[in-house]
Design brief:
single chain; 512 residues; alpha+beta; five-stranded mixed beta sheet; two-stranded antiparallel sheet; 20 helices; 7 strands; globular
Length: 512
């Protein structure tokens, strides 16, 4: 059977080899995620999930229901980690890093099942080291949860496809587990349902009858109906969750500057996509065609899944006249396919260059040296001067003191000093960085601090946002020399700095 293929020999038992490979991959994933950790992104998405989890497990009013505050597949796991570890800002990073470790295991198991351990090992390396995953693996956003749920759904689905004919209890559990995992993926991001048509087609082709595909769809529909009834009873909206989403996300102006024509929909893959993604997509398409031509096992199924996702990602619109896409043209929406794309690309390379790509996987020293060497190379590269467009993905080695973990403790110290000395905490011309400071760093129930209302005042051509009740903000701006100390919150990248008013870049024109 294809799932039992072994593309390399091993002097160890299968279990020993798999444990060794997984240990190496988990260590590598942990290194990459921690070293390339990015500062908390200035939301509101990330902050809404973190803050909603806080209010769910502790005192205080839960935020208004909207498309972000009802993503329970994100909020509930985040709340679990807060219950377990507390609400210290560092716990924020635990959530995506833990997801990344789970994804490493799931992708290895999926690749091992489909193509053997050699392909799965290198596919995990590619997936983990991909720079756009450094950002995804640092933030509490839908993508990092979607990857976990989608990988779980596919692992269970492909196990069922190979063993479903047995009609054993285990295969039935895999079938139901795949449905549940896809439902959780939908709960984290609705667009994950773009995989569903592909899954149904695969089930139909494999069984040559409608029953399993219909059953899969009905199980998923049943979960949605239960959810819909729960929302209807709780909030009274006849459209349930979709009604809440439509009032917020679909009503937003994100698509104002996007193309309004049919052919403009393809610009998602051209002018709106960054160059590294072009390379990856080209490699993926070429690899898929090559493997399909060679009639390699499981490639047809993976191609159907990818075609399903990309078709709906491209052509789903919320309006026809004019054409308005459901999703903005952002590269992060391709992340959901990255694990399986990595498998396809590596499998094609493996077929073309088996000896130079794989080497001898039966030697512990080779594997450990390879992964350690890759880690050292990444460290050396980040020690070199890089363009700003690349450095935005990580903290350069020579600036390791600005690593997010170090900055987190620094921010907490600055906020404590501002409170003690009654120094204004503010941001200029944008509310978002102050909101991040307020709900992530200031809000600390253990210390009796709660997120405060944010005040707003206009100073000449600028808008100043400030935490209400800390420092005398109007008085501070009466000092014409701008010598008043403030704690300024900046957005790109999120930062907090104790400085004089006149030193805030946004206010330079006032104090010239």
């Amino acid at each position: 059977m294809p799932g039992n293929m072994s593309l390399e020999k091993s002097s160890f038992s299968d279990k020993q080899t798999d444990r060794l490979l997984l240990a190496v991959l988990i260590a590598f994933t942990l290194f990459v995620r921690l070293y390339f950790l990015q500062m908390i992104n200035v939301g509101p998405d990330e902050i809404d999930y973190w803050f909603s989890a806080k209010r769910l497990i502790g005192p205080g009013v839960y935020p208004d229901l909207m498309h972000r505050t009802i993503r329970w597949a994100i909020i509930l796991p985040t709340a679990f980690f807060q219950l377990l570890l507390g609400t210290h800002p560092l716990v924020y990073y635990v959530v995506p890093v833990f997801n990344s470790l789970v994804q490493t295991v799931l992708l290895y198991l999926l690749g091992r099942h489909l193509f053997g351990r050699g392909v799965s090992f290198y596919a995990v390396l590619l997936f983990t080291a991909w720079p756009y995953m450094w950002r995804t693996g640092s933030q509490i956003r839908p993508a990092v949860f979607s990857l976990t749920y989608v990988l779980a759904a596919l692992c269970l689905l492909f196990f069922y496809l190979e063993h479903g004919q047995d009609d054993s209890r285990r295969s039935r559990l895999c079938f139901v587990g795949s449905v549940l995992s896809l439902f959780l993926a939908y709960e984290s991001k609705i667009t994950n349902l773009y995989f569903l048509p592909g899954i149904l087609i695969i089930l139909l082709l494999r069984h040559r009858r409608m029953g399993p595909a219909i059953r899969y769809g009905l199980y998923l529909l049943g979960l949605y109906v239960i959810e819909h009834i729960a929302y209807f009873l709780a909030v009274g909206d006849p459209l349930g969750r979709l009604g809440i989403i439509a009032k917020n996300h679909l009503a937003s102006s994100y698509a104002d500057k996007l193309p309004k024509s049919f052919w403009g929909l393809f610009e998602r893959y051209t002018i709106y996509l960054e160059f590294p993604w072009h390379l990856l997509l080209i490699a993926f398409v070429v690899a898929s065609i090559y493997l399909l031509a060679k009639k390699k096992p499981w490639i047809r199924e993976l191609t159907i899944l990818h075609a399903s996702f990309f078709f709906f990602l491209t052509f789903m619109v919320k309006s026809v006249k004019p054409i308005v896409p459901v999703e903005a043209f952002l590269d992060r929406y391709f992340i959901a396919c990255l694990p399986t794309m990595s498998l396809v690309i590596v499998y094609a390379l493996y077929e073309l260059l088996p000896l130079s790509i794989v080497g001898e996987l039966n030697r512990r020293g080779v594997l450990i040296s390879l992964t350690a060497g890759l880690s050292v190379v990444m460290l050396l590269i980040t020690a070199l001067p890089m363009p700003k467009s690349i450095e935005r993905f990580y903290t350069p080695l020579q600036q390791i003191h600005d690593h997010p973990i170090a900055k987190t403790f620094e921010f907490q110290h600055l906020i404590a000093s501002a409170i003690e000395e009654n120094i204004p905490i503010l941001s200029v011309d944008t509310r978002k960085p102050l909101d991040t400071a307020n709900r992530v760093f200031f809000d600390d129930p253990k210390k009796g601090r709660w997120a405060r209302p944010i005040g707003r005042m206009e100073i000449e051509d600028h808008v100043v946002y400030y935490l209400d009740g800390i420092g005398n903000v109007p008085f501070a701006f009466d000092v014409q020399e701008g010598n008043t100390n403030v704690l300024w919150c900046d957005r790109f990248n999120f930062d907090m700095t104790m400085l004089k008013l006149r030193e805030i870049p946004n206010l330079g024109d006032i104090y010239e």
